[in-house]
Amino acid sequence: MTSDPYGAHVRELFARPDHAGDLEKATARVHIDEQGVRITLAARCGGDVIERLRFLVWGCPHLLAAAEACCREFEGRPVRALQEFSAEEIMQTLPVPREKLGRILILEDAVRSLGHSVGVGPKSGKDTD
Amino acid sequence: MNTDTDIVYLDYAATTPADPRVIDVMTPLFGTGGDFANPSSGHLAGRRAMGCVERATGQLAELLGCSETELVWTSGATESDNLAIAGAARYRADRGRHLITMPTEHKAVSDMFRTLEKQGFEVSWLNPDETGVLDAAELEAAIRPDTQLVSIMHVNNETGVIQDIEALGCICRDRDVLFHVDAAQSVGKLPLDLASLPVDLLSTTAHKVYGPKGVGALFIADRPGCHVEPLIYGGGQQGGRRPGTLAVPLIAGFGEAARIASTEMQDNRAHLQTLNDRLWEGIRDLDGVVRNGSADSTFPGILNVSIDDIEGESLLLALEPLCVATGSACNTKSQEPSSVLRALGRSDLLAQSAIRFSFGRPTTAAEVDFAIARYRDAVTRLRAIAPGRAA
């Protein structure tokens, strides 16, 4: 269906948000509430590796899908990989319409803040718990 | 439930499927052997085609309670609205350039008024009360000596709110102001008798009442001062008010749809009320759910609900394969919350969560039960993954 505003990848991520939820004993947690969207990311790390990554999102299907894609991508990878998260890249791979760049940039902020928080400890970073 | 396509369609305010009886009337009119000729042609085939148009005109006139000479065929309600508003405003411009409407109108109306504002007309935009209804006293106070036209829709396409067009029209007639009604959502669904109603111009369309897409009509009352300047020129058909070759199969289909509506309206309305009540009872206990538009003053074919702290676009996707609307179908690409709901005093957050369920003749109780279950599941799921409630 060419007029589908989501596409198969976004639909699959939206329908199966396996990483939605919170984490007990998170190494770090970031919460952002800006421009009409809310994002919470939580990570539990073992050494330099992200063992678990979870999200909570109030936003459109593309943002939900991007958050789920992000968690699938970074679980099991080194903490420093979080700094490599790129809004532009995920905009293209899902894909996400250009008019939604703003909210994907907020997700980028959240992911990079989480990476920073994980790097410096569980009680710091942007608006962490 | 449409098991062939795995969809559950509850968007009958956007459009309806053509009734099989309508299709039966239309089909022979397309090809060789049928009355396919140009109805403006004077030969036998043309006269036969014109006979089909005249029959349909009579059927629609009977449904509306008007004279056949008061009807002009158009391409749909958008054209009818444009012709009525621009046509009447321009025809009476030498008497005054003040016009009145509401921000809750369909874009076919509101965008036409904004265009006229750019052309030097002054428009007063009247807000409804919190139930969506326009207070007649508000209209009376807004009419000025230079007011020429008031345009108020009968049934709101988003909320189903019914305006008291008789009371509003009486005020207009007393003040010698033309009164246009966008009745795209009400013709064939609510009783209308234009012989007695104080309405000068009324827009309608076939595809909201189980007729074909691509045909509508404008009622122009046969009374002094009620006239519209044409929007298009050439050909002279329909007295020059709306020239162009008449779409005989579509017009015949609209006529048949009008005939069916005339005979089945009461039964249909009772059916719609049962479905509306069933859906609302099935979801009203959800935390934060509100009905947009008073139950006492809304058309039962539409139920518009908002819910606290749910993102509307995600809700719409989570509801699939349920086919419903977040606003008017013409406006679904907009990221802006509905101006109709904001005019009712809803916050942007609540307005953006609005879902319009709309029912039709084919809708079953099983489909409504599916919608109830789907809506409840979607709300639960989206709240579970939203920060603030789950975090």
Q: What are the SSEs and their pairings?
A:
The complex is a heterodimer of chains A (129) and B (391).
Chain A: H1 7-15, E1 28-34, E2 37-46, E3 49-58, H2 61-74, H3 87-93, H4 101-120
Antiparallel strand pairs in A: 1-2, 2-3
Chain B: E1 8-9, H1 20-26, H2 44-64, E2 71-74, H3 77-91, E3 98-101, H4 107-118, E4 122-125, H5 136-142, E5 147-151, H6 165-174, E6 178-182, E7 201-205, E8 216-220, H7 248-283, E9 289-291, E10 302-307, H8 312-319, E11 322-323, H9 339-343, H10 348-352, E12 355-358, H11 365-384
Parallel strand pairs in B: 1-11, 3-4, 3-5, 5-6, 6-7
Antiparallel strand pairs in B: 2-8, 7-8, 9-10, 10-12
Verbal overview:
The complex is a heterodimer of chains A (129) and B (391). Chain A is an alpha+beta fold and 129 residues long. Chain A has one domain: Sufe protein. Chain: A (Alpha-Beta Complex), CATH 3.90.1010.10. Chain A is 39% helix and 21% strand. In chain A, helix 2 runs parallel beside helix 4 and helix 3 packs across helix 4. Chain B has two domains: 129 residues, Aspartate Aminotransferase, domain 1, CATH 3.90.1150.10; 241 residues, Type I PLP-dependent aspartate aminotransferase-like (Major domain) (Aspartate Aminotransferase, domain 2, 3-Layer(aba) Sandwich), CATH 3.40.640. In chain B, 37% of the residues lie in helices and 13% in strands. Chain B has a seven-stranded mixed sheet, with helices on both faces. A three-stranded antiparallel sheet of chain B has the order 9-10-12. A two-stranded parallel sheet of chain B has the order 1-11. In chain B, strand 3, helix 4 and strand 4 form a beta-alpha-beta unit. In chain B, helix 7 crosses helix 11. At the A-B interface, strand 2 and strand 3 of A face helix 8 of B.
